[in-house]
Predict the 3D structure of the following.
Amino acid sequence: MSNRLYIPGPLTVSEDIIQAMRKPMIGHRSKDFVALYEDMQPRLQKMFFTQDPVYLGTSSAWGVMEGALRNVCRKGVLNCMNGAFSDKWNDVAKRCGKYAEALQFDWGKPIDPEAVRQALATGKFDCITFIHSETSTGTLSPIADIMAVVREFPDVISIADSVSSFSTLPIAKDELGIDILLTGSQKALALPLVWQFLPSANALANVPSRAPTAATTSTSSNSTITM
Ligand SMILES: Cc1ncc(COP(=O)(O)O)c(C=O)c1O
């Protein structure tokens, strides 16, 4: 008998995936693993609508969320908040030693792109976080309109969380100019919670003034996840 959970995820993992996971391990530093990783790229890139490499992380989604912040945020991060998960971004950013400001919206209300514009226009931020689908309230924010505003500020790196929307709705990462689009495997993809997906390395390449060492300069005591 299996348990049935009526939540956005973790979802029930199908029998063929469970069977595939019964195959013997391959070394994670072996050539076989490199070949497997490379083989997955074109299909992952198609799902993310991107030409960027797609990185896989073996933590829960918060691991890659924290990793993204630690790697790209130097000056300050604007956390768009309208529910439990997006509110937590602000807490995590501060505990990573980042200057972080909340752009708070009522729970259940979508992010207002005009408010984002006004906040970014202060020049205090080099990074913005927002959640496409705030799972705690089931609120979808207008990702295309938000990104149209963020693109007006080329020095600001965008980190978009699509944990509960990825693959349920198309998110045209490259077309929208999202720097880092992260998701988790345990929600609509119905995979075990061991892989998180995160494109792209281009976030830093897009902003030439950034040295890729932001993570190592953090003074906080949390573990560092360097991409
Ligand atoms: C929108 C969103 N972001 C982040 C998370 C955190 O994911 P994880 O539990 O894999 O760390 C969740 C989890 O439900 C979520 O729904």
About this structure: The first strand starts at residue 55 and ends at 57.
